Amino acid sequence: MSDVSSSSDPTLDVVKKSWGDEESDDEVTSAPDAPEPSDGRDIVQSELKKIESLSISVDKGKDKEDDNDHSEGLLDNPEDSDIKAVTAGDTIYSAAEYFEDLNLTKDLIKGLYVEMRFQRPSKIQAISLPMILIPPYKDLVAQAHNGSGKTTCFVLGMLGRVDPKIKSPQAMCICPTRELAIQSQDVLIKMAKYTDITSFLAIPADSAYYVPIAKLPPVTDHVVIGTPGTIKKWTTARKLSTGEIKILVFDEADHMLSEDGFRDDSLRIIKEIQKNSGVRCQVLLFSATFNDNVKTFVSRVVNDANQIFVKKEDLKLEKVKQYKVYCPDEVAKIGVIKDKIFEFGQKVGQTIIFTHTRDSARTLHQTLTKDGYECTAVQGSLKQEDRDTIIKEFKNGVTKVLITTDLLARGFDQSQVNLVINFDLPVKHYFPSEPDYEVYLHRIGRAGRFGRKGAAFNLLCTDRDRAIMEKIERHFDLSVSEVVNWRSEEDFEKALQDAGLL
DNA sequence: CCCAGCG
Asked: What is the largest CA-CA distance in chain A?
């Protein structure tokens, strides 16, 4: 099979869905033709008519033989499931077989080979980069698997579009957390090593070194990466001009545009740029997840966008073996962490433990360190500089076990993380008996980066926990194996063996 | 709830 828009799976052949459509996987009934409440749905429907199917040739078989033999490439065919691409308008794109197909400068390509150690575009790169880099520079909504290299896509997209000779911001990337902004800039610096392109990191400063923005020089770097509040601060202080920004990226875009995320901030920034920018600004939305509510909203934010997405069943991360462990009470959960996770976790790499609140992250950390278990914890109430050091220590491998909140649920990339623990299951804050499926997927995705093996343990305690876990399994059409006895060394050992980690 | 930010 050499065509991503056609497939042996009949449901994949139909490229009729738009981002505003109902999820049609589960239900047979189509959206009614009767007048809808005026939520913009009708606009979406009419835009839908313009969308036409696209054939992108991606030779999957060839990718496999070529890439898997080389040990260096980090992007070696991390996902095998199909990606569906839908183009808007009549531009014909073909997948980039080589980076040379993308009209990039020599300096930039050198960075890809030498610094990034890339050989050929990964699947998501091959499909998305032509859409980003070839005129008319259409907007793009791109969903791709965790650990498949979304960051490299949009970073390369930004670098490919800026003119190093113009000394003002031409590309902007907005991230939900300080940690992600730093991480993306790290990638950018590496990739741009042989170019003259510079970047500016717009995140809150260390409180100790606070200098009022008014006293700082204006930003002249080509690319700005940051968090919403700080970017807003720089623009309103007139130290960051948006007039020449021609590409705007939202990392973890569904969260940036969801009602309980950063919706207002994001929209304000888009508006600000569109108001000031001389040329039309290209908007890119990247995430591993776009739930139906967000899809509806997203299709109104972008304009006539190209789309790349995968079916939700294909997102469930088969490389990360997921388990549930029934624990009689909270004390037992801590016991599992102490006796099993610390016991085995260290052998198989690094571990991230997720809790529901900042406070529970802090208390769990205190409890464990008091008893001599070596770990660190990071959450949003820490001082900025403390966050940075704890993250740095973990990325350097100095610490093996990191306790955190959903601060790190999304995007955090550390290849040595093979074990994810849901100390608390992720739930919707406004409806705590409902799982937060997106957050679940993102958390699990912290293990198994770039096709590596991994395991995840969900610690369940109450009846509610059981019900939530069942819903998660049903939603992803997943059967999560049970670690039968929470006290049993052998059960955990067996689980890790089955996951391919021991 | 989690982020983000208020100088």
From this structure: 65
pLDDT of residue A82: 67
User: Where do runs of H (alpha helix) occur along A134-202?
Assistant: 150-161, 178-191
From the C1' of B2, which residue's alpha carbon is nearest? A406
Residue with tokens 């993306």: A184
- pLDDT, position A152: 95
**DSSP label of A398:** S
Q: In CATH terms, are A10-26+37-311 and A320-498 the same topology?
A: yes
Report domain extents, chain A: 10-26+37-311, 320-498
Residues with CB under 7 A from strand B: A 176-179, 203-205, 207, 210, 212, 226-230, 233, 260-262, 356-359, 379-381, 405-407, 429
Pairing state of beta strands A427-428 and A431-435?
antiparallel
Helices H / strands E in chain A, number of each: 18, 18
CATH 3.40.50.300 for domain A320-498: yes
Distance CA A356, CA A469 (A): 15
pLDDT in the model for residue A316:
61
Alpha-carbon gap, residue A406 to A404, rounded angstroms: 7
Cβ A252 vs Cβ A180: under 8 Å: yes
**Percent of all residues in chain A with a pLDDT value above 90, rounded to a whole number:** 69
What CA–CA distances, in Å, run from A230 to A34, A182, A205, A209, A323? Answer: 44, 13, 9, 15, 39
Is a pLDDT exceeding 60 seen at residue A93? yes
Report CA(A103)–C1'(B2) in Å, whole number: 41
* Range A10-26+37-311: architecture per CATH: 3-Layer(aba) Sandwich (3.40)
Long-range Cβ pairs for the range A96-104 (8 Å, 24+): A96/A121, A96/A125, A96/A126, A96/A129, A96/A130, A97/A121, A97/A126, A101/A130, A102/A129, A102/A130, A102/A133, A102/A160, A103/A133, A103/A134, A103/A160, A104/A133, A104/A156, A104/A159, A104/A160
Average pLDDT over every residue of A366-370 = 96
Q: In Å, what is the separation between the CA of A195 and the C1' of B1?
A: 43
Give pLDDT tens digits for A300-324. 899 899 999 877 666 766 789 999 9
Nearest residue to B5, CA vs C1'? A229
Under the banding of pLDDT at 50, 70 and 90, the label for residue A64 is very low
